[in-house]
Amino acid sequence: MNEYELLAELLLPDIKQTPDYYENMYPERNLPEGAKVTRVAPSPTGYLHLGTLFTSLVNRITATTSNGIFFTRIEDTDKKREVEGGIEDIIDGLNRFGITIDEGFINGTNESGDYGPYQQSKRAEIYQTYVKDLIKKGLAYPCFCTAEELEAVREIQEANKIRTGYHGEYAKHRNITYAEAKELIDKGLPFVIRLKSQGNEENKAVFEDMIKGKIEMPQNDEDFVLLKSDGIPTYHFAHAIDDHLMHTTHVMRGDEWISSTPKHIELFKLLGFKQPKYAHVSPIMKLDNGAKRKISKRKDPEAAVHFFIEEGYEAVSVIEYLMTIAASDFEDWRRANPDTDYKEFKFNLKKMSVSGALFDQNKLNDISKIKVSKLNSAEVYEKITEWAKEFDNEFYNILTKNPDYSKSVFAIDRDNASKPRKDIAKWNEVKEYYSYMFKETYESCFELPENICKKDAFDFLSEYAKVYDENDDRQAWFDKIKEIAPKLNFASDTKEYKANPENFKGSAGDLSTLLRIAITGRKNTPDLCSIMQVLGKDESLDRINNAIKFCEE
Question: Which is nearest to 395 in space by CA: 444, 443, 433?
Answer without folding.
Answer: 433
